[in-house]
Design brief:
The chain is an all-alpha fold. It has one domain: TerB-like. It has 6 helices and no strands. Helix 2 crosses helix 3. The longest helix has 24 residues. The protein is globular and about 45 Å long. The two termini are 27 Å apart.
């Protein structure tokens, strides 16, 4: 479904989404843990990807660049769906909406640029 680098970008962006409101809820932790099975991974595999994302995407800018660089429609769809689920655990706050809106606008812009180059 997703390539390794796409899963690393997803893990980093999930971490960013979870921290967007300043606190990580139990619900967010459970949702993030459920990503393993939904991505066809074991918990051990997902944990390793999560740890890798912490090291290779150490800050918000690196995470934003990695998730923004997703080009495959299926990768974008999966990432957006899972991030939306994280954001809507409890009450969605402005920083969480900001991430989702940025992804939507960024990917649309990237697609428009890509089509214009053809």
């Amino acid at each position: 479904m997703l390539t390794h680098s796409e899963m690393v970008a997803l893990a980093g962006s999930a971490r960013l989404m979870m921290m967007a409101d300043g606190e990580i809820s139990e619900g967010e932790l459970q949702i993030a843990e459920s990503f393993a099975g939904r991505l066809g991974l074991t918990v051990v595999q997902w944990s390793a990807i999560w740890e890798e994302a912490i090291h290779v995407l150490p800050d918000d800018d690196a995470v934003t660049e990695a998730v923004g660089a997703l080009t495959r429609p299926v990768a974008r769809e999966v990432a957006y769906e899972l991030l939306y689920e994280l954001a809507t655990d409890g009450t969605i706050v402005d920083p969480e909406w900001d991430i989702l809106e940025w992804l939507d606008e960024h990917w649309r812009y990237e697609d428009m640029v890509r089509r214009a180059k053809k």
